[in-house]
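**Backbone description:**
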Amino acid sequence: LEQARADARGKASAVVVKGEHQRAVLMALCSGNGLGEHSSPPAATLHCLVGSVRLWSPEESWTVLAGSLVPIPEARHGVDAVEDSVFLLTV
């Protein structure tokens, strides 16, 4: 979170696992910042570690609280920080 707070865009990331078929990225977002609409491969997950985020698609949205692990929809989607948050994306 300290790196995200120091960043003008309010976000920071670090790849923590990079394999031939899988990648895990630790993300930090300051409240009010997010990841715009994008696609991801099937079988992606978001594990919120600190704070809470809103995972959304054009059709619906989900609030993901600290400690929760959710599948990321195959549809285009985005993530917004409801509060300062840290989460692990696995794709």
